[in-house]
Amino acid sequence: METELDGSELGTKEYWDSSYTREIGNYKNHGDVGEIWFDEDSQQRVIDWLVKQKIDKQARVLDLGCGNGMFLVGLANEGYEQLTGVDYSANAVELAKNIAQDNQMNITYKVADLTQPQDELGAFDVVHDKGTYDAVSLCPENPKEKRSLYLATVEKLLSSADSLFVITSCNWTEDELVHSFAEKLVKYATIPTPTFKFGGKVGNVVTSVVFKKR
Description:
The protein is α/β, with parallel strands linked by helices. The protein has seven helices and nine strands, in the order H-H-E-H-E-H-E-E-H-H-E-H-E-E-E-E. A seven-stranded mixed sheet has the order 3-2-1-4-5-9-6, sandwiched between helices. A hairpin with a 2-residue loop joins strand 7 (195-198) and strand 8 (201-204). Helix 1 packs parallel to helix 4 (90-102). The longest helix is centred in the first third of the chain and has 18 residues, at 13-30. The protein starts with 12 loop residues before the first helix and ends with a strand. It is found in: Cytoplasm.
């Protein structure tokens, strides 16, 4: 049986709308792109991993819960060209569009609720999630149902059996993710993340795992 996380404001659209309203103001006034939710280094680790895997620069990449879009900016700097970001906060999408435009980058951003079917988005070679599954899991209402709907959406967004779903979580361990995704996805690789030792046991602050379709 899956353990449920306690509900949090981090699992509500209202929280993120409010947060990105402030960050839009900070960006316009000070050029500050805003915070990257939990462990900025993990974003670069994923980019470095994709580059090391020699993922084609023409691969279609989708960032789920893109926030300010800096993950896709990082990929654009590596030469990737077919980049799309989605977020259920229109304010996040506005901020990401402003940053991409100011950096003269051709990145597509759209508003999308990933707990709803997203057939119009198409299919992708790489689908990335850093913290979005976590946020869905923190939803105060029906988190288990919303996670199931989210995973159904992710499965349809993967274009083929070779497509990759790369997820970084600060709330779920690798074993928990593998178990939760088992019906639809199978683990393909683990991206190493920093470890800590406590009480004689070794753990990870964050977990980054790569999945493929079953």
